[in-house]
Amino acid sequence: MAAVAEAPPGATRATGGRPRRRRWGRWIMLVALAVVLGYGVYVVGSVVAASHVDQRDRTEAIVVLGAAQWDGKPSPVLKERLDHALGLYRSGVAPEIVLTGSKQPSDRFTEAYSGFRYLLGKGVPEKHMSLITDGRSTYESLAATNRVLSQRGVDRVTLVSDGYHNRRLQGIAGELGLDATVSPSTTGGPVGQLARESGLVAVGEILGYRRVNRFS
């Protein structure tokens, strides 16, 4: 009878368990990476696509998202949004323009009031404008706008901002239960802005936009 070699003391017989676990671990990591990359590509694509969406259906109010103002004078970005809202108003999209935006501690005027003065000078009657100065972020401004307008029975609005902002505006409006369309003052956007918006949308869609409002 042939002798059977015995393993030295303390040795264990090799099995395929550990290599198999390592292979499964690598596959799980690759799948997770593919999911993350796929989601990132989807979000970037949705932000870029939404930046070109311009909805001009009739609503009850045009809401202008605030931007910088210089001692009561709208910055070029804010002026562009105001001019776009004025065009929508004159074409009959909505009978009212709602100006939003607070101010920095050192400012004399809010972004909303700067917009109000600008549109007043363009011939928009004071009775056709409202100011909402609560909120230091997009989320907070839209939440305050939703509270005020819902109390007045206004259900459907048109949101005016830059094109790169559209996707996040749609997401925030949906989270707040605000029935909103978007009509941007510009389409597309700088690569840096589109990348930042994509990050905010990606996190906002997973964790909720209220959680990321401090960054927006």
Describe the protein's architecture and organization:
- This protein is α/β, with parallel strands linked by helices and 216 residues long.
- The protein contains six helices and seven strands.
- The protein has helices at residues 17-50, 76-90, 111-121, 138-151, 166-176, 191-207, and strands spanning 61-64, 69-70, 73-74, 97-100, 129-132, 156-160, 179-182.
- Strands 5-4-1-6-7 form a five-stranded parallel beta sheet, with helices on both faces. The protein has a two-stranded antiparallel ribbon with strand order 2-3.
- Helix 4 crosses helix 5.
- The protein is elongated and about 75 Å long.
- The relative contact order is 0.15.
Task: Briefly summarize what is shown.
It contains six helices and seven strands. The protein has helices at 17-50, 76-90, 111-121, 138-151, 166-176, 191-207, and strands at 61-64, 69-70, 73-74, 97-100, 129-132, 156-160, 179-182.
Secondary structure elements and pairings:
Elements lengths: L16 H34 L10 E4 L4 E2 L2 E2 L1 H15 L6 E4 L10 H11 L7 E4 L5 H14 L4 E5 L5 H11 L2 E4 L8 H17 L9
Parallel strand pairs: 1-4, 1-6, 4-5, 6-7
Antiparallel strand pairs: 2-3
Helix pairs in contact: 1-6, 2-3, 4-5
Contiguous low-pLDDT stretches (5 residues minimum) are: none
The CATH topology comes to Rossmann fold
**Quick one: CATH class?**
Alpha Beta
Question: Percentage of helical residues?
Answer: 40-55%
Separation, N- and C-terminal Cα atoms: 81 Å
